[in-house]
């Protein structure tokens, strides 16, 4: 999956979607719940929000079209997300002693439309405060835009793609351990 170039990350050519206030509320609650799982370090529960072929992408450049022609800060399939979760949860991981603490704010949530595979494309913005026990910079602020491709799953969704466009994506970053 990582080296295959046929995973559709495009959000162009979306079909409009008729969207009620109730559906907007459900979408907001889904994205708020995802953020809460990450903040509470309930990472196994967070992994369960994904489709089996879902991809987590953090581009390294503004307006990056795809993860195939340019390096990315993260391009992770299910296996890599699971490995990172195990590493973050391992008591022998000294960089996580004490564990990272995060708080996220998610807002400006909107449904953009449906892609060719009937995934709902949703946009939001976020700000995350991350505390790690680092002497020179214990509190780290991160902000950006998130695009989700959500596959219908009963009366909710599963994440098929999560693209996180950091405001400072082209800066020099230290260790990026927490998921955004």
Automatic annotation (TrEMBL):
Q: Does the keyword NAD apply?
A: no
| Any GO molecular function | dioxygenase activity
A biological process from GO: 3-phenylpropionate catabolic process
- Keywords assigned by UniProt? Dioxygenase, Oxidoreductase
**Has UniProt tagged this entry with the keyword Oxidoreductase?**
yes
- Please provide an example of a Pfam family that matches this protein in its UniProt record: Ring_hydroxyl_B
Give the signal peptide, or none: none
**Record-linked CDD domains:** ring_hydroxylating_dioxygenases_beta
| UniProt xrefs under InterPro entries | NTF2-like_dom_sf, Rng_hydr_dOase-bsu
Protein family per UniProt: Belongs to the bacterial ring-hydroxylating dioxygenase beta subunit family.
The protein's name: Aromatic-ring-hydroxylating dioxygenase, beta subunit
Organism annotation: Verminephrobacter eiseniae (strain EF01-2)
């Amino acid at each position: 999956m990582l080296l295959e170039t046929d995973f559709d990350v495009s959000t162009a050519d979306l079909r409009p979607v008729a969207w009620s206030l109730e559906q907007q509320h459900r979408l907001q609650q889904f994205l708020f719940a995802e953020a809460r799982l990450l903040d509470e370090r309930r990472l196994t529960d967070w992994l369960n929000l994904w489709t089996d072929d879902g991809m987590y992408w953090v581009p390294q450049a503004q307006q990056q079209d795809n993860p195939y022609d340019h390096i990315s800060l993260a391009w992770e399939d299910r296996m890599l997300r699971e490995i990172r979760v195990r590493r973050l949860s391992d008591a022998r991981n000294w960089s996580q002693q004490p564990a990272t603490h995060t708080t996220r704010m998610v807002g400006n949530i909107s449904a953009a439309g449906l892609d060719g595979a009937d995934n709902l494309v949703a946009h939001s913005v976020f700000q995350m405060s991350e505390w790690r026990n680092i002497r020179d910079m214990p509190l780290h602020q991160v902000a950006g835009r998130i695009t989700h491709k959500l596959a219908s799953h009963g009366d909710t969704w599963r994440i098929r793609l999560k693209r996180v466009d950091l405001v400072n994506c082209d800066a020099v970053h230290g260790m990026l351990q927490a998921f955004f």
